Amino acid sequence: MTVEAHDPRPKKVQIADALREEIVALPVGHRLASLRELAERFKVTTVTAGSALKVLADEGVIVSVPTRGYFVASPPHAADTGQKAGGLANRDEINAIHSEIQQLAARVAELEKRAQSPSSA
Fold first, then answer.
1. Which residues have CB under 8 Å from 32's CB, separation 6+?
2. What sign for the dihedral angle of Cα 51, 77, 104, 117?
3. Looking at the domain that runs over 11-116, which CATH code has it been given?
4. Domain boundaries along the sequence of the chain
5. How far, in Å, CA of 15 to CA of 97, rounded?
6. pLDDT 10s digit of each residue in the chain, 121 long?
């Protein structure tokens, strides 16, 4: 898939819109493709792909875990529902889930690191 030159939306918005549609079907915590993979898929630079991911992260749809990647935080419709209802409790719950995802990703990274290092038992 490529971004459309005749589309008046910026490339990053086109990519973010396409990814947002896909993310709805993914479970919370699902890891997204890497910047390089997204850049190749959409035929853009990694900077543009990163800008698209930042749009989604700013919306709370995905969360970035440094050195691990981008993960689904919540489906776009769930985030919108919380904002429309003015539900601060919903926003707090979403923030708590984001925090849990980051903690779990850190634990996975630590376990992977241990699995790759020689056993010192």
1. 19, 23, 38, 53, 62, 69, 70, 71, 72
2. negative
3. 1.10.10.10
4. 11-116
5. 25
6. 678 888 899 999 999 999 999 998 899 999 999 999 999 999 999 999 999 999 999 999 999 999 899 999 965 454 444 444 445 556 667 777 877 888 888 888 888 888 888 765 5
Residue whose structure tokens are 């010192």: 120
Nearest to 75 by CA among 16, 26, 19: 26
* Residue 69 in tokens: 């990647």
Helical (H) or strand (E) element with 80 = helix 76-84
Residue type, 120: S
Task: Write b or e for each residue in 44-54: b if 16 or more Cβ atoms lie within 10 A of its Cβ, otherwise e.
Answer: beeebbbbbbe
Structure tokens at 84: 């429309």
